[in-house]
From TrEMBL:
Its cofactor is pyridoxal 5'-phosphate. Its EC number is 3.7.1.3. It comes from Actinoallomurus bryophytorum. This is Kynureninase. The gene is kynU. Keywords: Hydrolase, Pyridine nucleotide biosynthesis, Pyridoxal phosphate. One of its GO terms (biological process) is L-tryptophan catabolic process to kynurenine. Catalyzes the cleavage of L-kynurenine (L-Kyn) and L-3-hydroxykynurenine (L-3OHKyn) into anthranilic acid (AA) and 3-hydroxyanthranilic acid (3-OHAA), respectively. One of its GO terms (molecular function) is kynureninase activity. HAMAP family: Kynureninase. It comes from the Bacteria. It holds the Pfam family KYNU_C. It catalyses: 3-hydroxy-L-kynurenine + H2O = 3-hydroxyanthranilate + L-alanine + H(+); L-kynurenine + H2O = anthranilate + L-alanine + H(+). The modification N6-(pyridoxal phosphate)lysine is found at residue 230.
Amino acid sequence: MTDLSRERAVALDAADPLVSLRDAFVVDDPELIYLDGNSLGRLPKATADRIAQVVRDEWGAGLIRSWRHWVDLPSRAGDLIGSTLLGAAAGQVVVSDSTTVNLYKLAAAALDARPDRSVIITDDDNFPTDRYVLQGLAAQRGAELRVVHTDIDDGLDPDLLRDVVDENTALVSLSHVAYRSGALLDMAAVNAIVHDAGALVLWDLCHSAGSVPVELDASGADLAVGCTYKYLNGGPGSPAFLYVRDELQAALRQPIWGWFGQRDQFAMGPSYDPVPGIDRYLAGTPAVVGIAAVEEGVRVLAEAGIDRLQAKGIALTDYVIELAGAWLPGFDLATPADPRRRGSHVSLRHPDAWRITQALVEAKVIPDYRTPDRLRLGPAPVSTGFTDVWDGLSRLRQIMADRSYERFSGEPARVT
Ligand SMILES: *Cc1c(COP(=O)(O)O)cnc(C)c1O
């Protein structure tokens, strides 16, 4: 019989090789169970000190002289993310702008690189900002946006993709791990389907960076973007990353012709002539304080190692599924049950999911609510313990037993 006792959770924590890294994070309230590290990662202790140092010493004392080393920060942080988490050799990743803006830059660059093709492909379960950016690009250019249907709990079926990609396809843009269900796509298989048709592929890695190994170089990916404030713990609104495969860098040109991509930038020359390397995908002055925080967040993950993070993510999400199966009969699993087919979060479906989410927050358990009727639980592998999962789900079990969620309104809030 399965052991559902809290003692087992304590024993699993004691055997966890990453347990000591939980001390790398600020824990303000030990009673609070944080199951939303995939929306906003926790604050690493080192980040508060680093930001104070950047602000006080580098800005306050160094003033403009600090640009001598700040200027390398976007590519230094990019190489750290690329080499430790994304399977990308140096010189292919930079940190800049937001995921939304980077997606626009790279999607536009890809469309310009295939001028005789007019179709963009994505899926109907892709993250909203991705779908809107692609809709906008299609509208601006008179291109066709083809939208593949995806099962919102099980993820995209690559065979459906194969059926719609053709010789008129310029770009396929997909999320590697689905934001709602956590379903994980086979990157190499999708890259092969897209390349067979002569198109380019652009990946959104927001929910995979830091949760599962990503093999951008080895799988043959062309382009990728992703957030740093989720599993990478860069802080609210921290700048995003982008990847362009080195063979494509000099040939593709992004639509924002900014001076940070310019050859011999401080010659202040008359017309745009971008550098051949990854810096040509920068636009304007980088957000130095934000990128410094990204470096600190990624350093903690680098210390853990992505293979151990994935193993822990699987163990934690398996544990959520096991406890939910035993304790929460009114919930259905809305995530692939096979751990090789998901990232590090789990969604549970319940008709009262929004009211239950509010009751959980009152009981000091922080999940996410996602439409329609999904309770999303993201136990970030680097900062969440098995006892956190046990405590969080036993509070949820209590809320269901005493029906305390019925006191809450079903009206949606501005931010869920
Ligand atoms: C969180 C998330 C985003 C957010 O993009 P921003 O530009 O940072 O607001 C984009 N795509 C996916 C898949 C996400 O999960």
